[in-house]
Design goal:
By secondary structure, this protein is an alpha/beta fold. It contains six helices and seven strands. A five-stranded parallel β-sheet has the order 3-2-1-4-5. Strand 4, helix 6 and strand 5 form a beta-alpha-beta unit. The two termini are 23 Å apart.
Length: 233
C-alpha cells in the first residue's frame, strides 16, 4: 500500500511539474471532419488516387481465430486498443495478400518492437516473415528472423522483398528517417511489391506532438510545428 501511494504521489507531482513547465505550449488537436476532407482534397489535387476500404467483420474475426495473438498483447482485450492493434495487422495481411505468398516470397514487419506478428505468420501460414527493429526484444533473440536492423539501411539485397508493413510505427521515424525509409524500401522491394503503412497520420500542416517530458528537446523536425499532449508520459 505504501509503494502504491508513493507511486501515485510521484505521478501526480510529475504531472503537475510538467503542466507548469509547459503551460505555454500549444496543445495538439486531431483534425476535424472538415479538415480531414480538406486533406483528402489536397491529396487528390496532387494526383494520388484514394479508394475507400471497408473491413469485412467475418473475415476479421476469422483472422483473429487463425493467428491466435497472445491474450496480453498490447494490454489484452480490456486495454481498449487490443482490437485496434489486431485490426492494423489484419489490414496489412489483407492488402498485401499475405495468404497468397509463395514459399520463396518474403515479408518484413518494420519497427516490430515486441510484436509476435512475424512468428505468428510463419507458424500459421508458413510465410517467410521477418521482423526488424533497432533492438530485438529478449523474447525473440533466439529467432533468427527477428533482426536488429535500421529500416533506413537494411541488410536485405536489392529486389528481395515482396511486402512490407508498419503498424503504428511510421510516425515515430524522426527527421529524415521517414523519407530515407521510403528510398530503402524502393531498393529492396521486388517490382510490384507493396508497403502498407497503417495508420498513416496526416494533418493540414507540417506538425508533430510530444509528451511533456520530450517536448522542446529537438525530437521534432525544425520545419514543423511542435505540439504537446498531456495524456501520456
Amino acid at each position: 500500500m505504501i509503494i502504491r501511494n508513493t507511486r501515485k504521489i510521484h505521478g501526480a507531482a510529475k504531472k503537475y511539474y510538467y503542466q507548469c513547465k509547459c503551460r505555454d505550449a500549444k496543445h495538439y488537436k486531431n483534425p476535424t471532419k472538415e479538415e480531414l476532407t480538406s486533406i483528402e482534397e489536397h491529396i487528390l489535387q496532387m494526383g494520388t488516387k484514394i479508394h475507400e476500404y471497408v473491413v469485412c467483420p467475418k473475415a476479421f474475426h476469422k483472422f483473429k481465430q487463425n493467428l491466435s495473438f497472445p491474450i496480453d498483447y498490447h494490454g489484452g482485450a480490456k486495454s481498449g486498443v487490443y482490437d485496434e492493434k489486431l485490426l492494423e495487422h489484419y489490414i496489412s495481411f489483407d492488402r498485401l495478400g499475405l495468404k497468397y505468398f509463395n514459399n520463396d516470397e518474403r515479408y518484413v514487419d518494420v519497427a516490430a518492437c515486441g510484436s509476435p506478428w512475424a512468428r505468428l505468420l510463419r507458424e500459421s501460414h508458413g510465410i517467410q516473415a521477418y521482423a526488424i527493429d533497432l533492438i530485438v526484444q529478449k523474447d525473440f533473440k533466439d529467432m533468427d528472423y527477428y533482426l536488429r536492423m535500421d529500416a533506413t539501411k537494411t541488410g536485405f539485397p536489392d529486389s528481395s522483398i515482396k511486402g512490407m508493413s508498419l503498424q503504428c510505427a511510421y510516425e515515430m521515424f524522426l527527421h529524415t528517417d521517414d523519407m530515407d525509409f521510403i528510398r530503402e524500401a524502393y531498393r529492396i522491394l521486388v517490382k510490384g511489391g507493396k508497403i502498407i503503412i497503417v495508420p498513416l497520420y496526416m494533418h493540414t500542416h507540417y506538425c508533430s506532438y510530444s509528451s511533456p517530458d520530450y517536448w522542446g528537446k529537438g525530437y521534432s523536425d525544425r520545419e514543423g510545428k511542435e505540439y504537446i499532449r498531456f495524456d501520456a508520459y
